[in-house]
Amino acid sequence: AGHANLDLNKNDDRESLFRNRKRDGSSWVLGDSGGFQIGKGVWEGDWKDPNCPKAQKKRELVLSWMDAYMDRGMILDIPAWVARSPAGRKATGINTYIEAVQGTYINNDYFMKHRTGACKFLNVLQGENHADADDWYDRMKKYCDPKQYAQPFEGWAMGGQNMCDVHLVLKRLVALRYDNLLQEGKHDWMHFLGTSKLEWAVLLTVIQRAVRKYVNPAFTI
Q: Is the pTM of this model over 0.85?
């Protein structure tokens, strides 16, 4: 979404490949929501204020775009590292980890309330160290809980320390299993943001096979 034309009423030949495809199961598209653009300060607005018109307009555009064209996609998270980005702090009003959490709450609640169900959303997990990653998970896991929402988010996206720390990945998978948040048909997908190393392709294949064998046979990374 950070590089897309979010105006659904305007034709864009550059995006015809996914805009005009048939959503009949013969293809699928995974969409990113633009949290990176928020962190870098490209999408301005007071993202910790639910009444900020700039931030609200972007929420609406992103959700509509995702529902219209994506099969699966990331929720619009505020990455925890925004506090280390001078441009991000200045443009977004997010100066601390807890403000990034609060901003993500606002976005998650909006997506949860206004989504159409056409796009299956992945709950993004952030945090730059084990303590913050654990705290983020404890705060955000409710959005994938069928006991709390009639239409919860349908999977997971690993960001921050979660996508580059093997120990933390395995620890999170164990927590997901015991929290009953890796259910077949409900939480079948997990995406690792910004991960393209060959060693990780091998590692994640092993993890996928293990989760399919012992927890969820439909699990896909």
A: yes
Torsion of Cα atoms, 18 then 7 then 121 then 160, to 10°: 100
Q: CB–CB of 43/4 below 8 Å?
A: no
pLDDT below 70 — which residues of the chain?
Answer: none
Q: Would you state the structure tokens that stand for residue 111, as one six-digit string?
A: 């997506």
Task: Report helix, strand or coil for 47.
Answer: coil
CA pair distance 120, 106, nearest whole angstrom: 19
Q: What is the DSSP string of 84-124?
A: G-HHHHHHH---SHHHHHHHHHHHHHHHHHH--SSSEEEEE
For the packed helices 97-114 and 53-69, what is the interaxial angle rounded to 10 degrees? 50
pLDDT tens per residue, range 58-91: 999 999 999 999 999 999 999 999 989 999 999 9
Q: At what angle do helices 166-178 and 198-214 cross, to 10 degrees?
A: 20
